[in-house]
Amino acid sequence: MANHHENIPQRPPATPAAPAGPVLEWKSHPASRRPMITVAVSVFILICAGLVFSLTASKAFATLALLVLFASLAKYYFPTRFRLDADGVTVKTMTQTLHKAWSMYRSYYPDRNGVLLSPFPSPSRLENFRGLYLMFAGNGDEVVQFVGDHISKTSAEDGEKDPPA
After folding, report:
1. What mean pLDDT, rounded, does the chain reach?
2. Confidence band (pLDDT; 50, 70, 90) for 158?
3. In what order do the strands lie in the sheet with 24-28?
């Protein structure tokens, strides 16, 4: 019996269209920018694991302490890639890719290390949990300008006031 599916043309996989407009991409890797602090933090983690072992005499607990402390600093040890475009913000870490539309954010708060994108129109205690922090890599002015342009557009479309800079 002949295979009836042989003559069915195969469609190529759909590729997402590239967003129109400017794109800003960069990689932030704090551990490589501050090697002395990286060594100090690594030694501290090893000392803590050694202390756990000396107090409990358990290799399992010492290993667990080492893993938990190291994992809690993953954003410091491993590079994070950021992409800003007309559609929104994409953040790629070792374990996940997160994409959020500009419409999710109502305000932003820059500091010397990065900028916090907040879903709230005014300061809130919840923004550290619901917001998104973009770490700079020597490109702070450029990132803040890009974020300001897109969050201002989103807020203006929603009829809100411009966010604080």
Report:
1. 85
2. low
3. 24-28, 80-84, 88-92, 97-101
pTM of the entire structure? Answer: 0.73
List domains and CATH numbers for the chain: 24-157 (2.30.29)
Burial 30-41 (b: 16+ CB within 10 A, else e): bbeeeeeebeeb
Name the nearest CA neighbour of 72 among 48, 108, 99: 48
Structure tokens at 123: 């300061």
As a whole number of Å, the CA-based R_g of the chain is 22
Burial class (CB in 10 A: 0-12, 13-18, 19+), 69: middle
What CA dihedral angle connects 111, 117, 118 and 123, to 10 degrees? 20
pLDDT in tens, 86-95: 999 999 998 8
Q: Which of 135, 115, 121 shows the shortest CA–CA distance to 27?
A: 135
